[in-house]
Structure formats: structure tokens, C-alpha cells
Amino acid sequence: MKIEEEKKIAIFAGTTEGRLLAERLVGSNVRADVFVATEYGKEEIPEAPNLHVYDGRIDENGMEDLFREKRYDLILDATHPFAKAVTANIREAAKKTDTAFLRILRDGGRSGIRVQTLEEIQEMAADRKNEPVFVDSVRTAVEFLKMTEGPVFVTTGSKELSAFLELPDWETRVYARVLSMPDVVKTCADMGFYGIHLIAMQGPFSEELNVAMMRSVHAKWMVTKESGKAGGFGEKVSAAKKAGVGLVVIGRPAEDGISLEDGIKYLEKNFSLAASDGHEKDDADDRPEQVGESCQTDSDLINTDHIAPEKADRNQPAPAQEDSVGSAVGENIKNEKVRQVFLIGTGPGDSSWLTGEAKKRLEACDLIVGASRCVRQLADFHKPVYEAYQPEKIADYLDSHPEAGIICGAMSGDTGFYSAAEKLSTVLEKRGSYEVTIIPGISSVGYFFAKIRRPWDHVTLFSMHGQETNFASELKRTGRAFVLGGGTDFYGKICGQLEELGMQETKLFIGENLSLDGEQVLSGSLETFRERKAPPLAVLYAEWNGPLRPMSHGLSDEEFLRGKVPMTKMEVRAVSVSKLELTEHSVLYDVGAGTGSISVECAGLSDSVKVFAIEKNPEAVELLEQNFRKFALTNAKIIAGNAPEALNDLPAPTHVFIGGSSGKMEEVIALCLKKNPKTRFVVNLITPESLAAVLAAAKTLPVTEPELVTLTAARSKKAGNSHLMMGLNPVWIVSFEGKKQGEEHDEI
């Protein structure tokens, strides 16, 4: 009697089709290795003795090593229809290893949707709004949406979301639905999608649920892929129609292959499976019908052109150990040599502004990586690309694609000015297999100032990309400031800051889409640009010719809004701030902040200083808010509450100013020392009892010997033709800091 040898199949899954193929093989005499990209995909595959599931991404070289080692009878590719690169890798690896290959298509075939031209789309946007639009890519969908208005409900998945950052007002316009996986949500949040603009849910989604979601965000447009029945495409189409929402459909790539149903029939016939209805199909007359409209014979169902006749029915070796898969996949990366990475400043926008060195490296590279906008401007080089902006994500991709020996990273503008080059360089060099070279480019700063014919050697430079800035405060100090835009309301924010400081006479220059089609360089007043919406690529330069802020601290008392709340007087404030000895990147607690005069003085010294103003009095908190707003401070934060409890969740301080502690002086000092044993303290006191409390705390806590200063000041007051000196309350200023380790043992 002939003993049947175990048949082996590899299924590349991660889709409904892949799961159904795996389910069909449960309990059969076929061993199936099922490969999915994520942990979620792994959970979808049923457990069975003959099914072995592996999660993680494999590149083409890893697949080739795996196929040679495992010697599968058949490779089934049931990956997503839009995973073109994965399918290409599987197909090529199968060809190189003489392994039979079968592509399973969603809904049985090629895309039947006609992709409209950009000219037709433009006509539709102008004349026929809210009719279905069929496009060939996410980029084309975004170009169409630029010509429309209203909220957009996006269901294309997290991998495609970065393309929508090119939409004006994307922060308020785009609502994305993605898988409810922590890494997916984090990736989306890193791009700027969060809150009500990010819906993390797992399908399937019914027509009713799709309608409810679109109505909840007041969607005018829905963007989806032609994902077939398994992807809920029909429900999306009907839901859009029912909700009166315009539909933008990204047609899936045309492919050769067969349907899931025909694939299962093929397995039943060629791998001796019981038929789906439970009856054996071992009679020759009961063989399956011809499957696939273009197929003439059973052999036409699979890619066997590359298989030698003697190999098509070869004997199989004994099953390999499960952990051998990992060794086959990783072998290629373990033996890789150091690869060259060139981080290239791509200039202000148009590729014509690339340097000669940059062009030379781009022409010679194997792969271009970077944010979608930067990568797209290099399309003329006709290189494979990977679109991502997170350094770790780029590094992971490069690790899994060792076939790219020379890589160019596209960095916006210049590599040394608010660039991702530094972080990416650090991440790659830590991996140990990359040699990184940085090639600078022409920054938007230099380009813009050449356009407005101004020098910029005395201009303070800022960026509002994902961060706040003390732009107006700095302009008041220096008279000249430049900022890279961030968000559509960026002009309005800057104008608001300037108006708060009474700087209405500021002259503004703006630059939009520099070096690109639609470039605009304009000048005007705050009134000119206050309501103007900024595009994603915008810069602003301001000139203030009014009185500048004094370089030293010591603002006049009259500068502050104070009401009936006590305030540290100018003379005391000047000495106290000096005693704090702040440095760049200091973190200051202002405990008992009152009107915030100390906080304002310290925050105004440098944008890098972070100030936390702690105050329990509601009236004082309101004054703090008004004074912070008046001085346009973005590096000072109000903490309403009692110390020391209100300090618990704050970052560790480097400096602490105490103007009032409500009898909890020692507890406040102790907590700050616990957070940072080297904290420097300055305390203002007006009563002997408070002074005694500080000195007593200094004896019991690990701090240096306190320095005491008694400050008595008097101000002149006009009395007829004379001036009288009016004395201010005397104040003790006590300063000390946490003891450095070992300091108490300095004596011999």
C-alpha cells in the first residue's frame, strides 16, 4: 500500500480570504504554514494541529530562503488587493525557487471600475459635486478633495493617512476610521489625527453603522478603496448614497488570479480534501469545473511556467522544525554589510532647487524614503520609494529590505533647520548597519529672504510645526523674527500674539508654496493677514520698529495687571530673579505665584525655560491668566491648587521660587528635593516667623547653608517742589540649593 506523504502549503493571509482558506484546511492531511503581518491577523486564524501561524513581515529575500527550506507544494497569496509590493515579492520568490504559486483575488477578479482622468475629475468638482469619483491612487483622491469643501470621512486605512496631510484644513476636515490597535492609533496620533478626528474600530461595518458615522461627523465626502465584498465595499457604497455623501473610490490594481471559491475547488481536487458539501471527490468524472474565466486546464490555475517537469511533483522532505522559519527569514539580515544612507535637504519645494551633490546621490540610489511631500517632489528620479516620517518606522523598513544598498532620505528644506535629519541619523546609527552622510539643502529661510531682498543674519528663527512659540515676545525684544508655519490658523495666532502686546504697527511678510506652482510672497499689516488661511507650506517674517523690551529682567510694576492681589515689587523681583541663577532649559516652580510677576520675568528670559505658576487663590489665578496672555507666554503654565499637593504631577524642577506656602514651607521644599536633589531655591519672606520656618527646614533637610539678604528699598514721591522717599516693606531673600552627594564630607 502506498503511503501518502504530507502535503505542505504556505498561505499568505491577513484577509478574510486567507482566513477562509485556512479554515478549509482544518483537520485535513495538509500541513499549512499561515503568514500574517500583525498580531491581530494571527488571532483571526483558527487553531488546528495542521495549521502553523507566524506573524511578522518578510521581505523577498526572506521569502526566497523560506521557500527553499520548506519546499512547499503550493504558495497561496491571499493578501490584500492593495498590497501590491507584498504580492510582487511572493510571486518573485516563488519563481526563483520553482514553487507553484496561486493568487487569490477578492470577489473573483480584476477591477471593473474605470479610473477617471484628472481633467474629468476637475470638471466633476466644478460641475457635478457629490457624484461618485473613481481614481487610481490616494494621491489623486487628495488632489480631487483639494477642489472640494466639507468634512471628509476616510476609510482607506492608517498606511494611507499621511497623504491626506496635503489637504488644506486637514486638521479640521479629515475624520479617519482605522483599526483599533495600539500601534495603529499611536501612528495616527503622531501624524496629528486624534480626538473626534480618529475613530478606532474593528469591522465589519453595516450600512446603518456607516451612515451613522458619516452623519455624526457631518461628512460631505467619503474616501474608500475598492475592497470588494470582504472589505465591506457594498455597504460603504450604499451608506454613502443613503447619507447623501459624495463617494471617492480608489480602484484596486488589475491582477491575474482566481476567486476564493475557485481556489477552494482547486484545493479539494488536487490535495484530496473532502468537498465543501462533505462528499469525497475522488471520481475522475466528478472533478471540479474549469475555474477562472481565462483558464483552459487545471494547470493554468497556478503559475507553473517556471517549474521544471521533474520538480512539479517532487518528493517532500520530512517537515521542518517550526523555529526553522525564523532562521530562514532572518538569515539575509544577519549577514548584511554596512549600507549607505544619504540624508538630503530637498530645498524649498521644487526639485530644480536641489544641489548638484544631492542630484548625484539621488540618481545613484536604490531607494528613496521620507515624508510623502518630500518623496513626491523627487518623482523625476524614478526610484522606488517608501513614504513615512517616523525615524523608527523608516529604520524598521530599511532593516526588512536589505536589497536596497544605497538609500536617500528626503528631508524638507535644509537638514540643519528644524529637520528630521538629526533624529533619523541617530536612530540609523544605533542600528549599527548604516553609514549616514548628511547633504544640506537650500532652506526655505534663505529662499524667502532672497525673495523679499532682506538679510537675515540678525533675525530670530522659530518653527510652529507641532509646537508653541513666544514669537511676539521675541519680536518685542529683537525687532526681527521669522517662523515656519503650522496649521491653517497660523497667521491668526501670530497676529493675536502681536495685538496682545500692543504691536499693531508690525509689518508682516508671508511666503506660501515657495518655489512651487502657486507661490505667493506678500507683505502687509496684521489686518491684512489676520483672517487669511495658511496653506501647509507657509512662512512668516515680522519687523517691529517700535520700542524694544529691555534686555535685563526688571519690568515696571505698572506693566502688570494686579487688582488686589499682592505682587513682588520690581526691586525685590530683580534681586530674586538674579539669585535664582536660571540657565537654558531650566524648569521653574513659582509657588504662591500671585499676579505672576516672577513667572513672567523668568519665562521672558528664554523660550527654553519652562515655568509652572502654582496658585490657590481664584482671583490670583484669573490675574495670572490675564498677565500670561498679555505677555504672550507659551512656556508658562498655571497650576491652580495648594502646594505641595499641586506639585505631585509636575516634571522635576531645577529651580523653585517660593513667595507663599500657607505654612507648608518644609513640605514644599522636601517634595522638590525628592523630585530633584539638586534643586535651587529662592524664598521671599516678610515676617520673622516665616524666616524662622525656612531656617529650621534648612537644618533638617539636605540643603546648603542658606544665604540671607535683607532688602530695604524706597521710592521717590513728588511733594510740591520736593521729593519724599517712601520706604517699601523690608524683605528677606533666602537662597540655597540641594546638597551635592558627598558635600557634607568635604572636611579632612
Written overview of the protein:
This protein has five domains: 7-109 and 257-331, NAD(P)-binding Rossmann-like Domain (Rossmann fold); 118-250, Rossmann fold (3-Layer(aba) Sandwich), CATH 3.40.50; 336-442, Tetrapyrrole methylase, N-terminal domain (Cobalt-precorrin-4 Transmethylase, domain 1); 445-543, 2-Layer Sandwich (Methyltransferase, Cobalt-precorrin-4 Transmethylase, Domain 2), CATH 3.30.950.10; 557-745, Rossmann fold (3-Layer(aba) Sandwich), CATH 3.40.50.150. Helix content is 32%, strand content 21%. Helix 3 (60-70) crosses helix 4, helix 9 packs across helix 10 (233-243) and helix 15 (391-399) runs parallel beside helix 16. Residues 108-115 and 276-336 have low confidence and may be disordered. It has 748 residues and is α/β, with parallel strands linked by helices.
What's the short story on this structure?
By secondary structure, the protein is an alpha/beta fold.
